[in-house]
Amino acid sequence: MKKGIHPELNEIKVTCTCGATFDMRSTVNEIKPTLCSQCHPFYTGEQKFVDTMGRIERFEKKYKKAKKKSKKS
Q1: What's the predicted TM-score (pTM) here?
Q2: Closest to 48 (Cα-Cα) out of 15, 17, 23, 13
Q3: Are 19 and 39 in contact (CB under 8 A)?
Q4: Residue 24: its pLDDT value, please?
Q5: Number of Cβ within a 10 Å radius of residue 26
Q6: Which burial class, exposed, middle or buried, applies to 36 when counting CB atoms under 10 A from its CB (0-12, 13-18, 19+)?
Q7: Which alpha helices (DSSP H) does 1-73 contain, by range?
Q8: Can you tell me whether residue 58 is helix, strand or coil?
Q9: Could you tell me the domains of the chain?
Q10: Using one digit for the tens of pLDDT, what is the confidence trace for 22-47?
Q11: Any idea what the Cα angle at residue 35 is, between residues 29 and 41, rounded to 5°?
Q12: Is residue 25 within 8 Å of residue 13, measured between CB atoms?
C-alpha cells in the first residue's frame, strides 16, 4: 500500500436511537443510525412507525382531503 493516501481507520462506538450500542471500525469518528438490527421491523418481526414531526398525520390528512374530492366528482 502507498503511504499517506489512505484514510485513518478508527475503533468507534455506534449508538442507535433505540439505545443499542456496538463497536466497529470506520473512517468517521461517530455514527448515530435511526434503525439497527435490534429495532428494525425486518429483524424484530414487529411493525413500528418512526414518526418524526407528525409526518404520518400530515400524509393521512393530505390524502384524506384528496380522497373526499375524488368521491365528489
Answers
A1: 0.48
A2: 17
A3: no
A4: 92
A5: 13
A6: middle
A7: 41-44, 55-72
A8: helix
A9: 10-72 (4.10.80.400)
A10: 999 999 998 888 888 888 777 777 77
A11: 160
A12: no
**37-62 burial by CB neighbour count: b if 16+ within 10 A, else e?**
eebeeeeeeeeeeeeeeeeeeeeeee
Kindly state the cell numbers that stand for 25.
471500525
- 11 vs 59: CA distance, rounded Å: 41
Separation CA 18–CA 33 (nearest Å): 9
Nearest CA to 28 among 44, 7, 58, 4?
7
Using DSSP's 3-state secondary structure scheme, residue 13 falls into: strand
